[in-house]
Amino acid sequence: MTDQISIVQKYFDKDHIKSVENFDGHIIATLENAPEDKQKAEALKAELLSLEGVKKASVVFVRQKQQESAGIEKWHLPNIKHIIGVASGKGGVGKSTTAVNLALALADLGQKVAVFDADIYGPSLPTMLSFENTPPVSYDGKMFEPFENFGVKAMSIGSLIDRDTPLIWRGSKAGGAIEQMFKETNWGDIDVMVFDMPPGTGDIQITLAQRIDFDGIVIVSTPQDIALIDAVKGVKMFEKIGIKILGVVENMSYYVCPHCGEKSYIFGQNGAKDTAARLGVRFLGEVPLDTNVREQADEGTPIVAADPDGALSRAYHQIATKIADALKN
To answer: What is the mean pLDDT of residues 48-76?
Structure first.
């Protein structure tokens, strides 16, 4: 660790070095109130990557909340009151499904809600919200009109490309595409925007965390250890950047047998709940494993809309209520 800090000091003043952390071979150097120098940052990352055992290196520029951003422009839209990110340390844990159903549940609470699909490498909102193969409309040639289904507004990069076309973009290009869609959509007045983040803790996630004025992040994980390890990385990354963690959602918590009603903890029991307690963040609730969630998402009708009075919808509504209460404080 001493060698890593001394390398960072070669490029940036030690007074600006907030922390240098190594998460299983991913070094994150966090610089506070430092001028954003991209050339120095790239050179620093290259030297850190040359160290033995280092798989990835990231340089994060942050500022104290009381001070103006040191050269980092925020993507601010004044007509959006609150933005919450839904994130996960790894893919395959049901993050996007959680984001969509929480958006619908927040709308059921009387909020004006939008959901933005920033999962640029695996956009799934067009499928889940029934606007797949429908191109966005622009009346003036400058601003996109959001899609609106089930009481929420939505936009996704997936509405601009064929579903089978992979996006082979580096972080800067991906970030530029997200910025354009975010800022050039006619959202109207929104109480809460749910931001479906790309999974993981790489450069694009760090860029979004820097540029978006998040009111907080919801971390989604399944109960097994391999998912929780990555969830912990996600919590620590956002905390390092200075973003509040609203809490942890445990997805696929258990399976209820449709014949006997017995619960089976397929991926382990209370993993996310215990991890949240260890990290000192709020546990927002459990969502059981149920084929109806997958089937309804694939058919373009999220479970909160398809079965509003069912047990799954109640779980999402309870989590949404906790999030709405947190945004009031």
So the answer is: 72
Instruction: List the structure tokens of 221.
Output: 């994980």
**pLDDT score for 68:** 38
SS3 271: helix
| Of the candidates 68, 47, 58, 107, the residue with the CA atom closest to the CA atom of residue 209 | 58
Give the helix ranges, DSSP H, for 70-166: 95-108, 125-128
Q: Which CATH class is domain 80-328?
A: alpha beta
Residues contacting residue 42 through CB under 8 Å, at least 6 positions apart:
none
How far apart are alpha carbons 326 and 82 in whole angstroms? 11
Burial (CB count <10 Å: 0-12, 13-18, 19+), residue 78: exposed
Q: Which two three-digit tokens encode residue 15?
A: 């007074």
Q: Can you tell me whether residue 151 is helix, strand or coil?
A: coil
Rounding to the nearest 10 degrees, give the CA dihedral for residues 32, 37, 40, 43. 100
Query: Given the DSSP bridges, would you call strands 216-221 and 113-117 parallel, antiparallel or unpaired?
Result: unpaired
Fold of 2-62: Alpha-Beta Plaits (3.30.70)
- What is the percent of the chain where pLDDT is above 90? 36
Question: Which pTM value belongs to this model?
Answer: 0.75
Helix (H, G, I), strand (E, B) or coil at 50: coil
Q: Minimal CA–CA distance to 279: which of 246, 310, 317?
A: 246
Question: What is the CA angle 38-157-242, rounded to 5?
Answer: 45
